[in-house]
Amino acid sequence: MRLRTRFAPSPTGPLHLGHAYSAILAHDMARAAGGDFVLRIEDIDRSRSRAEWEDLIYKDLSWLGLSWETPVVRQSERLHLYRQTLQSLWNEDLLFACTCNRRDILEAASAPNESEPAVGPDGIVYPGTCRDRKSFGDPVMPTNTALRLDMAKAIDDRPATFEETGRGPEGESGRIDIHPIALPGEIGDVVLARRDMGTSYHLSVVVDDADQGITHVVRGQDLFEATKIHVVLQDILSLPRPEYHHHRLIRDEAGKRLAKRDDARSIQSYRDAGATPDDIRRMVGL
Length: 286
Ligand code: GLU
Prior knowledge:
Pfam families: tRNA-synt_1c. By secondary structure, the chain is of the alpha/beta class. The chain has two domains: 113 residues, 3-Layer(aba) Sandwich (Rossmann fold), CATH 3.40.50; 140 residues, Glutamyl-tRNA Synthetase, domain 3, CATH 3.90.800. The chain is 33% helix and 16% strand. Helix 7 packs across helix 8. It is globular, with a radius of gyration of 20 Å. The protein starts with a strand and ends with a helix. The mean pLDDT is 93. The site of glutamic acid has 7 residues, from loops.
């Protein structure tokens, strides 16, 4: 099978050294195997995405010497696909509408004994408030509300696995076994459609990786736990499972992971200060 990797930035700020590392790794992996490198613009968050950040992504990546397939896919142009997928999950009774806000969730999750609520890759594990109210078999999927996956219904008894060719945060590598029975308690009913977006990161990324024929997902270790959600979604949607390569995160001198607001470490600021693409490779340890 021809190897296809991708880099999937959100145009919500300037790319920094961490993005450069991720993009170069994915690009070089594809080139070394004679495969394809795909760039996907993850702009479902319309309130934070900006055309100027998208333009800067193209500029930064070209300057780094990377080339990618065209036309570039933008998630904001594929909302109909995500909607179709949600509709099929709704028809199978795997989703429920949720009207809780952050405060409702925090209160309900801490309520039983005032203990610290469990936290998963998406924050506090949803306490189930709206799931318990859901009306089964409703053919009409609501449009102006969040939709959550009913995790307990979505999982199968069989252990699910994925292949990790990089490392998770605890050094996890090779065949990773996911024990589905633990997922409702560890991850819970994740949001698959946010009220303001009509989709979510998890849903869009799984649909697009499959639709774009991605064979190897290269991304930061911060998304290792989210991969468990993606594996569940791939299984219930009968989508192929790519291999995963989670890589170390680039940190600042204090050991803090770089964020979009760290403008001082943006690729653009290094370029403006006279750095070369080779300097950037060296800075990220490549
Ligand atoms: N769009 C995500 C980000 O910018 C990346 C998602 C992924 O690689 O799966 O962090």
